[in-house]
Amino acid sequence: MPGQPQLGTNPLGVGINCTPVTLASAGLPNNLVIGMGDSFTVSTQVVLDGLLANAALSIPLNYSAEFFYEGMGSAAGEGSLAPAATGSTAAHAPGPLAGQRNFVITSTPTTPGAQGMTPGVYEVSVVVTFTGPGGPWPITCFATGPVIQVSAVV
């Protein structure tokens, strides 16, 4: 999904992208149906590229990944899918290509009930924002999907 600046559009600068949210329950990707009491984590993979990607990330930059849900159909509400995941790009090694870094950001475990969700269908999304020395940086990425079901019984 796109980022700002978008991956592959600025080969002399920095581009960014992140993958749609992945849910895991008991450490394994599940079938997108989560029981009310099931503990789960959510994650996204971030990719930065461009001639200045490694230089920009050597500063280092801090990031905050916020995961959200929005009810669809009879499911009401919207809110945080999991607590925000924070960290620093300094903790991630360079990616497989020169000038590219790939890393996964994962939330702490939570349950649907702890996040205010009720049984129903929800679309999930993620927004990753970077900050560094001198204030916020104009680098962010976001992705929507997948659609999940929270079930009273699984």
Structure in words:
The protein has 154 residues and is mostly beta strands. 3% of the residues lie in helices and 54% in strands. It has one helix spanning 53-57, and strands at 3-4, 15-18, 22-25, 28-29, 33-35, 40-49, 62-72, 78-88, 101-106, 120-132, 135-151. The strands form two sheets. Strands 1, 5, 7, 8, 10 and 11 form a six-stranded mixed sheet that branches. Strands 2, 3, 4, 6 and 9 form a five-stranded antiparallel sheet that branches. Strand 3 (22-25) and strand 4 (28-29) form a beta hairpin. The radius of gyration is 16 Å and the shape is elongated.
Features:
1 helix, six-stranded mixed β-sheet, five-stranded antiparallel β-sheet, 154 residues, mainly beta
Terminal CA distance: 31 Å
**Which outline best applies?**
elongated
Mean pLDDT: 82
Can you tell me the residue ranges where pLDDT is under 50 for at least 5 consecutive residues? none
Oligomer type: single chain
Helix content: under 10%
The number of strands is 11
Largest sheet: 6 strands, mixed
- Number of helices, counting only DSSP H or I runs of 4 residues or more: 1
Q: Helix/strand-derived class?
A: mainly beta
Query: How are helices and strands ordered from N to C?
Result: EEEEEEHEEEEE
Rg on CA atoms, Å? 16 Å
What proportion of the residues form beta strands (DSSP E)? over 45%
